[in-house]
Design brief:
heterodimer, A: about 775 residues, alpha+beta, Aldehyde Oxidoreductase, domain 4, Aldehyde Oxidoreductase, domain 3, 7-stranded mixed beta sheet, 21 helices, B: about 160 residues, DNA polymerase, domain 1, 2 domains, 5-stranded mixed beta sheet, 5 strands
């Protein structure tokens, strides 16, 4: 049952010498969230605020013939109707989803924003959208990414130029030779090859070759809070944006470029994010800012659930052809893959990380991987927790099980035999630093779920499956400021949006460095005018990078106190330590100055010390990939194809779990999303590219009825650069679910479904019962 | 705009007279007219449960109930759970077990969990999973929410 969750109040060190990090700490924002006091963007009101409602394209591909707003403008209570013609000047780039507010000639996907109505009454705005008279001429829709690659396919859109990939780079750092669209007009937005050795020779050596095609559906992040943004602009040129985002500084930079404003005149506040999972980087902010500039009043835009399902940035469909060869002893000899990611109408599909992971889990001398990012007339895609990884992992981890089964080998042993470790190359030739893939496999072997394997396999229609997953992680410089208050307490200011409890981890890191009780330290995420720079909270890198900056800032503050104390304590800084809320002489704790005294002496009238402010800035160049191994126990109803999940376990390498309570939460949450991808989640389109299930009833999320408690095992293989050895945590947990469940279903039924979600219908068909 | 009508709601023990348009939902009325913004709209179609309140002691998705339907009735929102300056045991348990992350589903989830414990003081794991089936959480995978409800029920039974 409930585990010990409070950190002990004393400052005495534990066995590892740590006083604050490595402990289960409850969230700083917990009380505000359980009482409903946390303010999300939709909870905010500004004086004179207008509500925006948006007209979405009713066709997947069509020419805009006319857009008559006369009747909409005449609706009582409508303040303005804004189309492409009414927008303020901005640096438009039709090649990027976020470079184009409203199209003026052609719509490229069902749900593309076309115009907005503004009113003080959101109901009036919504009703008036219906009064806009829009006429379209339908154009051929290109909906199948694989067919779209053919030379004679109709084109999705005009050619691309100057594609901005800064958002994708925030999620993962991959060095490679990627080719952007060039030459003959084509729907292929970009492609990349990864080659090593000789695959033909590798297959010749193999005792078993498996050649299969794996498909994974387009899925939606389905944060419970839809996209929510407020913007205001004043005549002096100050732009303010309050928005549910993981990336306030990225938005600031993009808006500055879009409107030609200096970055110091734009203030982006990341309001509390009601779920992001990679989907809340930069989407509605440009439109809302443009509307606010157009009408010179604050504008609020809250996506309805339907808007969000139609027109946000879900995760891509992928079609992956994978041929792998293995020797009788379990050695992987060759891996050949063709990965096709459906990017929708704009570039941005996470093809590169998919390529890196499909060939990145196992040692293999001969690889030939080609990735394609293909345009279609569907909504453009974005990141969902380890973008692109689950698609590729479903393929390789299914092939691994099929090969092991054919050879009569144990699936766990085969994985252990081939698993990559420190010093092994990734598909692009980069060398792995210390990683914990093997350790995760060893840990999952010890899970309750895997240990029941023999018993479960003896039961009819039940099975257990296993798969690994991983994520390479993003890198971006970071900074932090740590201030000493007059009463001796500490404030930490960072620029990173807290989407996973990172501010609580920063509280722990600061308390650790200064040897203070946790409640002496408070942490705040500032906005882009008041906080020091941070990269986007994406790529699992916030604790890994900003956490390092916080640690450096706290150490800087400590050093300043040591130097200021030299005269009064009459010793050098190296003979001082922090303990008991004071700076004291090592071995003589009665010769000391309290933090409170430092606080007063650095702030009072006529005080002798300067203000004490610690500063931490870091660059981040070394990644710390995170791996996971997961196991599932399923029961399949042979008549209906229904799958019941009886148990699920996840082992994950956190490097060092600064806050095991929140690390477990990340593991369980990501695992549950992976299970959703495996069994239920799918955006379904009709033959004209219209989304059929834009709601949370027909788009089926995991509920409490579906999910047993998820067992967690934290593995700790320290990273080189992360604070206290911490590595990336947030994303790996989602990656293995599709393959884990697929392997368990095969184990239960002998049927292999080559497409997720594994719906009852697909499963029954695979069992040859339909 | 349609003509407004006057309704009376008792919200968190306080009687309020409010002029509403007939199409306003209970959620909208509580959030916009009473400025109690703890209850959230996640879908507007009764699928996610973020707007969960109790009306006369029964769970409702307040995004689907029109305000006039609640006329004369007792409404409890997340803001009504703490009393005398201290958290409800359910609220405290969610903090202690780490049963919350982004927090958007949490007000509705806690109202539903409190109602579950009120009707069944010793819920089993299966009963908890069944009882919270109408409240979606995308962050936690529910495991720590189950722990929170078990812990809260235990503390309430022990009179904490």
């Amino acid at each position: 049952m409930a585990q010990e969750t409070r950190v002990r109040e004393s400052t005495g060190a534990d066995a590892n010498g740590h006083t604050a990090v490595g402990r289960r700490v409850t969230r700083l924002d917990g009380a505000a969230k359980v009482t409903g006091k946390t303010v999300y963007a939709d909870d905010m009101k500004m004086p004179g605020m207008l509500h925006a409602s948006v007209l979405y394209a009713p066709h997947a591909h069509a020419r805009i013939k006319s857009l008559d707003t006369t009747r909409a403008r005449a609706v009582p209570g409508v303040f303005a109707v804004i189309t492409a013609a009414d927008l303020p000047d901005y640096n438009r780039n039709d090649s990027n989803r976020t470079g184009l507010i409203f199209p003026d000639k052609e719509v490229l996907f069902y749900g593309q924003p076309v115009a907005a109505v503004l009113s003080e009454d959101p109901h009036v705005a919504e009703a008036a959208v219906e009064m806009i008279e829009a006429a379209f001429e339908r154009l051929p829709e290109v909906l199948d990414a694989v067919a779209a690659m053919e030379k004679d396919s109709p084109l999705v859109r005009d050619p691309l130029h100057d594609v901005d990939r800064s958002e994708e780079r925030g999620h993962v750092s991959v060095e490679t030779k990627e080719t952007e669209q060039e030459g003959e007009p084509s729907n292929i937005a970009s492609s990349a090859p990864f080659e090593r050795g000789d695959v033909a020779a590798g297959f010749a050596e193999a005792d078993i070759v498996i050649d299969r095609t794996w498909r994974s559906a387009m899925v939606h992040q389905s944060y419970i809070e839809p996209h929510s943004t407020i913007a205001d602009y004043d005549i002096s040129g100050e732009l303010r944006v309050w928005t549910s985002t993981q990336a306030p500084f990225h938005i600031r930079n993009e808006l500055a470029q879009a409107f030609g404003l200096p970055e110091n005149r734009i203030r982006v506040t990341a309001t509390e994010v009601g779920g992001g999972f990679g989907g809340k980087i930069y989407l509605t902010e440009l439109m809302v800012a443009a509307l606010a500039i157009a009408v010179q009043r604050p504008v609020k835009y809250i996506m309805s659930r339907k808007d969000d399902m139609l027109a946000a940035t879900p995760a891509p469909f992928a079609h992956i052809e994978l041929k792998t060869g293995m020797k009788r002893d379990g050695t992987l000899t060759a891996l050949q893959a063709r990965l096709i990611y459906d990017s929708g109408a704009f570039p941005g599909a996470p093809m590169l990380p998919g390529c890196m992971l499909i060939g990145g889990y196992y040692r293999c001398d001969n690889i030939d991987i080609k990735g394609y990012e293909v345009l279609t007339n569907k909504v453009s895609v974005g990141a969902l927790r380890a973008p692109g990884a689950h698609n590729a992992t479903f393929a390789i981890e299914s092939n691994m099980d099929l090969m092991a089964n054919e050879l009569g080998l144990d699936p766990l042993e085969v994985r252990l035999k081939n698993a990559v470790a420190e010093g092994d190359p990734m598909p692009n030739g980069q060398i792995y630093p210390a990683i914990g893939l093997r350790e995760c496999l060893e840990a999952i072997a010890d899970s309750d779920v895997w240990r029941r394997r023999r018993d479960v396999e003896a039961m009819p229609n039940r099975g257990i499956g296993l798969a690994v997953g991983g994520w390479l992680g993003g890198l971006q410089p970071a900074s932090a400021i740590v201030c000493l208050n007059p009463d001796g307490t500490i404030n930490v200011t960072v620029g990173s949006a807290d989407i996973t409890g990172t501010n609580t981890s920063f509280q722990q890191i600061t308390a650790e460095v200064l040897n203070l009780p946790l409640d002496m330290v408070n942490v705040e995420t500032g906005d882009t005018k008041t906080a020091p720079y941070a990269g986007m909270s994406a790529g699992s890198k916030t604790v890994y990078t900003v956490g390092r900056a916080v640690k450096a800032a706290a150490e800087d503050l400590r050093q300043q106190m040591f130097e200021l104390a030299m005269k009064r304590l009459e010793v050098e800084p190296e003979d001082m330590e922090v303990a008991n809320c004071q700076v004291q002489v090592k071995g003589a704790p009665d010769r000391a100055m309290t933090f409170k005294r430092f606080g007063r002496l650095s702030t009072n009238f006529g005080a002798p010390f300067p203000v004490i402010v610690g500063r931490g800035t870091i660059s981040a160049r070394k990644s710390a990939p995170g791996f996971t191994a997961q196991a599932a126990e399923v029961e399949v109803d042979p008549e209906t194809g229904d799958v019941t999940l009886h148990g699920y376990a996840i082992a994950q390498d956190a490097g060092f779990a600064i806050n095991p309570l929140s690390v477990e939460g990340q593991m369980q949450g990501g695992a549950s999303q992976g299970i959703g991808i495996a069994l239920w989640e799918e955006m379904q389109y009709d033959e004209h590219g219209r989304l059929l299930n834009p709601n949370l009833l027909d788009y089926r999320l995991p509920t409490s009825r579906d999910l047993p408690p998820i067992e967690t095992i934290i593995v700790e293989v320290p990273s080189e650069e992360g604070p206290y050895g911490a590595r990336i945590v947030g994303e790996p947990s989602i990656v293995a679910g599709a393959a884990t469940i697929g392997n368990a279903i095969d184990n239960a039924t002998g049927a292999r479904v080559d497409e997720v979600p594994i719906t009852p219908e697909r499963l029954i068909r695979s069992m040859d019962k339909l | 705009m349609m003509p407004k009508q006057l309704i009376t709601l008792t919200v968190n023990g306080q009687e309020r007279e409010i002029a509403v348009e007939p199409h306003w939902t209970l959620l909208e009325t509580v959030r916009e007219a009473l400025n109690l913004t703890g209850s959230k709209e996640g879908c507007g179609t009764g699928d996610c449960g973020a707007c969960t309140m109790t009306v006369d002691g029964r769970i409702v998705t307040s995004c689907l109930m029109l305000a006039p339907q609640a006329n004369g009735r007792q409404v409890t929102t997340i803001e009504g759970l703490q009393s005398n300056g201290s958290l409800d045991p359910v609220q405290q348990a969610f903090i202690d077990t780490g049963g919350l992350q982004c927090g958007y589903c949490i007000p509705g989830m806690i109202v539903a969990a409190r109602n579950l414990i009120d009707t069944n003081p010793s819920p089993t794991l299966d009963q908890i999973r069944e009882g919270l089936g109408g409240n979606l959480c995308r962050c936690t995978g529910y495991a720590k929410i189950y722990e929170a409800v078990e812990l809260a029920a235990e503390r309430i039974r022990e009179g904490a």
